[in-house]
Structure formats: structure tokens, C-alpha cells
Amino acid sequence: MIAIAQELVERGYPVKFVISEVAKNWIATTGAEFIPWEIRLTETENNNDNQPENFWGNVSQEKNNLRGENMMWQHFIKLYSPMYKSLIPIFEKYHPDLLIIDRAVIPAMDLAQQMNIPYVIQTRFLGNFVKKSSKDPQFGTSYSMNMNLWERCLNFLSPILSLPDVIINTNKQNQVRQSYTNNKKLNNLYDKNLIIVGTSFGIEISRELPSWVQMVGPIFPKTPPSLSSSLSQWLDDKQGTNGIIYVAFGTLVNIEKWQFQALLTGLKNTKLKVLWSLPANQHHHISNLPDSFRIENFVPQQAVLSHANVVLFVSHCGMNSINESLYFSKPILALPFFGDQHYNAARLVDIGVALRLNKQKFDSNEVTRKINSLLADSTYQEATNRISHTLKNSGGLKKAADIIETMSVEGINYFIKS
Fold first, then answer.
1. How large is the average pLDDT for residues 249-258?
2. What is the CATH number of the domain that holds 150?
């Protein structure tokens, strides 16, 4: 969305970006006007379990995928009210001509409908926005396209087993939503509203898309953030190694001590250099770090993955990370933790660009073995190169911005009638 904002500014549009204060520096280089958005929780909402580190730590290590999804859904229901209330003065002050809204910010969509402001939904994956064959793996599961009979039965039962939680959470969410819409009938936020999907078939399971769902491929900034001179020199230095492994699990995943140690030992045994992007709140895991390792709190990931000496990515399989890795032809060792990550990892294994670890029971030997397989077996690199070609020809930032411009002029009916 930051890349889209910058592109629209360059095309001459006045753009305002509503986001938390911590992201102010990210917006500074785009030319968009930064508008701080702080979500203020009440004392009841702001309990210990709702603290970001505690919440995402619990979700990261939850053993049951469906239970993890349920935890996140309930979390966002609790956030609905403070999000909605904090957006009202912003929308009333600026009253934009068009909103571009992240798929998770439902309060912004409800408010947009109330204020008759057209909006575009930006998402990084198809999820359940568009139905596919019931024979395919259900979104949220970790099943392969090549399921055995038992897995097919479980896949068929998955929507049925999750139905009680879906009904309860949907009712809770709709009660909260209706309390802010004067109990009016709620519209489907995703039906016949423009949705821009920032990935591509090849990664996603193929299906027919309605005209208002536009798949554009990865949306990258024209000029990605640059590497520091120190990190750039470290990446350039290939002496005594056959390449560099990059490790990152995003900003929300919290790994446990045993997981860190298993990865550390397994990575060390590959004899390759390792760059690990590890948030500062997890540095307490670090001990006896090999000389071949480098730990950073945060790195410009796109710049790292595009570097010629980086040969493999150990990832949680968030869709942004997947897009960046495959765009630059880097195979993936997948270690999913929650949400869409399990489903995404299964798709990567299906298309031959990755091998997967189970967060509950992997060890250092499995880490070493699977990394060696990914690097030694040329079929993984060949498959990665094919997907890279697809992503690079899917339209990306330019296509996304063109669609938004068309929406601003023609409105949603243009896409519905297409």
C-alpha cells in the first residue's frame, strides 16, 4: 500500500496515508501526507492477553490451526469498536474521494459505506474472497493438492468442523458492526466491491474470478529501501562460503527457545553464511552465535532477497515474503506459524519451490537436510525460476495504480459490467 501511495503521488494525485505513528518514517519518502491513527483501547479491552507481544506469542505457538484462526478473529472483533471510533474524526475531517483499505480493516469499510465514500480493498491473497472447487484444499488448512483419502475426508469436514466458531464469531462481529450502523442491514463488504489482489495464479489455486476481483501480482515500490553500507559489504563478501541463507519470520511471529536453537544448529551445519532478521524483543534467545551468522533487528527484505549471494529464504510464508522471495528466484524453507501461512506453505510445496517444517516438532537435522535438498536438487530452482517469470509479467504496481485510476473516474459499475 505504501508503494501504491507513492505511485499515485507521482501521477499527480493528493494522497493521505492513515497509519500508526510508528510507521511515520515509512511514509516520509512517498510524498503522501502522513495522518496518525492511534487505536485507543479501553481498560477492559487493554488486558494482558491483548498486549501485542503476548497475543501474537500465543497465536504463534497454538497447535490447532482452527483455534489459532478463532483467536485472531476474536481479537479483531475486540478491536472493531476502537478502530471505528478513531476513524470517524479522520474521515469527517478529510472526506476523501476514494479510499484504499487493507482487507482486515472492516471498520473503515463500514464507515465508508455509511459516508458514501467509494473504496478499493487491497489484499495480498485470494483467501475466501472467491470460491474454488470443494475438492481443492480449504483455505486455512495445510493440505496438499495431492491429498490422500484421509486428508480428503478431513478437508471436506473442515468447513463443517469450523462452522460453530464461524457462526458465533460472525454473530458477535455483526452485532458490533450493527451497533455503529443504527442496526441497518449489513452489506457484504466484499461482494461487487473492487478488490486488488497482490499475488498471482501459480501461487494461488486457479479459479474463475469475478470482474471486480483484479489479480495484479506483487506490488513492489519502484525504488526499494537500500541496504546499509555495512550490511551491503557483508552480503557482497562471499569468501569461504557457497552463498547466504536469509531467515525472517515477519514482525508478528514469536518463536520459542527450542525453535531458535534447532534452527541455529541446523543452519550452522549447512556451512553457509546466515543473515537473520530477528525483532529486538526476541534477542534473548541469542547465545553462542557462530561467526558466520549476522543478526539484524530489521532489514530491507526486498533488497536482501534480490542480492545475488542470497541463495535461500527460511520464511514463515506470509504472502509478502513469498512474493519477494519467488520474484527474485529464491527457494523457500517454509516454517508457517498461523493464519494463511499454513495454507501458503502447502501451495509452495505443491508447486515445487519449497520444503516445509512443522513448527511443533522439527529438529536441527531436518533443517540441515531440507536446506541441502533445496540447494542440491535443481528442480527446486527451475520451478522457482518459472514462478519468478510469471510474477514479473503479472502487472504489479503499474497495473494496480491503473485500476485505481479507473475506479476513481468510472466507479465500481465499470468493473461489475466488464
1. 92
2. 3.40.50
